[in-house]
Amino acid sequence: MSSYKAPLNDIRFALFDVIGADAEFERLGFDEASRDVVDAILDEAARFTETVLAPLNAVGDREGCTLDQASGDVTVPTGFKQAFDQFVDGGWTGLNSPPEFGGQGMPQTLGFPLKEMINSANLAWGNFPLLSHGATEALLHFGTDWQREAFLKPLVDGRWTGTMCLTEPHCGSDLGLLKTRAEPRADGTYAVTGTKIFITAGEHALTNNIVHLVLARLPDAPAGVKGISLFVVPKFKVGHHGTQGERNAVRCGSLEHKMGIHGSATCVMNFDGAEGYMVGDPNKGLVGMFAMMNSARLGVGLQGLGLSERAQQNALRYARERLQMRALSGPRFPDKPADPIIVHPDVRRMLLTCKALIEGGRVMSYHAGVQLDIARSSTDAAEREQADALAGFLTPIVKACLTEWGVECTYNALQCFGGHGYIAEHGMEQLARDARITTLYEGTTGIQALDLLGRKIMQLKGAGLRAFLAMVDRFCAENAGNAAVSEFIDPLRGQATQWQQLTQQIGQRAAANPDEVGAAAYDYLMYSGYVVLAYWWARSVAASEASSQSEAFKASKRETARFYFARLLPRTLAHAAAIESGAGTLTTLDADAFDA
Length: 596
Hints:
Layout: H1 8-18, H2 21-27, H3 35-53, H4 57-63, E1 66-67, E2 74-75, H5 80-89, H6 108-142, H7 145-156, E3 160-165, E4 181-184, E5 190-200, E6 209-216, E7 229-234, E8 236-238, E9 244-247, E10 250-255, E11 266-279, H8 285-321, H9 345-377, H10 381-416, H11 419-422, H12 428-438, H13 445-459, H14 463-478, H15 486-512, H16 515-545, H17 551-568, H18 571-580, H19 584-587
Parallel strand pairs: 3-6
Antiparallel strand pairs: 1-2, 4-5, 5-11, 6-7, 7-11, 8-9, 10-11
Helix pairs in contact: 1-9, 1-16, 3-6, 6-7, 6-8, 6-9, 8-9, 8-10, 8-12, 9-10, 9-16, 9-17, 10-12, 10-13, 10-14, 10-16, 13-16, 14-15, 15-16, 16-17, 16-18
């Protein structure tokens, strides 16, 4: 059975010592987010996730969700409902939401460590409230006044949850192919008809209502993505005054049988003329849906981080306890029949890989959260614009890299257990299975790569990249004489220079052959992630040396950074070589010749 202890010291270090989030909160006018209040919130989040959610993780995997075919009702695992009630009673559902709709108005950044802890403790349970935040964002920015009044308050206070309904059986990421239709009615509502698949938390009895945000086509809609509208379709009908009415014509048709996250209800949802209301303008639905999607993508990145943390904690504990052979240099514990496996270099390689990716990834993701707060709350228009560009640039990196690294970390952690990791007793195989979905939903790694390179770099002229490179340049200049980080400055500068060169090369080749973007995208994304992490590891060492942390903590950061620069950052060499090889190595072989 795996266990979980919230890494509060490192969470606080990332938030306050490295990023300086407390100073940012004060500067941005979050008067309620004082350091003592934030510390209290983190302590209570740790208590809730450790004592309430973590013990239910194996229960959810073992029991899963069940569907009553006659009624379409879904039963969740034992204890999930009680945990959700405690979550609502604690006010967690409204932590980052606007006070005018019942929220606490705390910074978006503060939601990141909460989500990380939830995902470490119980990823499947965390999927039930996950998309409510995105639904709130979509309605807040694109809903009408009455829609915000009717739907946001119960979403914020946790009486209702939200979903995101995009995918259909015949189309995944290519939303231009979707067939769900919305027929206008005389009373201003729409009759929504179609089938959506892979709908997280599409049906359950945790709340009084479920608010589905559904993409559909109007009868006169143009073809492709330019003809998609967004509709809010509740499980129970909702009137203009927010009154909940009779059951709507939306039903769970089946539950997906999945590799992992068994405790999460992944539903096929059938809409049969269900009553809905349009959100935003006709044929402009993707704008509102992307407000949900970007929120969800960052949330899924934190799922990868959370799973990595729990896996590494348990692998480290096991490596300290498990006796196996002697160290090659001689017995380290001569009073024992064998040495613990943590003395062996390959076990240390796996543990340090996890540690470097987790602790660097934590700072990287929290920094993205700060950009959301700056983009929303700064009084400086230019600063808001830059933060928005930086957040958009970082979102695919956070989502894709933290989930790819989540698969790697859960793999390494399981490997530390040897054969014991493959059996269910220690809970490691569940973490590995659960991690696999994170690279897939809310856009696969390939989709994130195309978003980064195709949109954020090519279409938007690399505004976010320029902002990040300016941060790197500024850090290197300011720390040129800092002995604590001197060994990292030149490698970091070199990586930043190559990053710019690769970007220019891809742009030049893409002008002649658009396939160059698709061919380079994955490697470009992963290259970017490793360079971003190098920057945050250099900054983490500088921050730790300047902090009041213990000498052991400072040594841990310093040696982990050295490991990262020496053994993980060189992965960029392979990604750069793949990028430079061009599209021909991928596109020349005829599709019919793959099985020749």
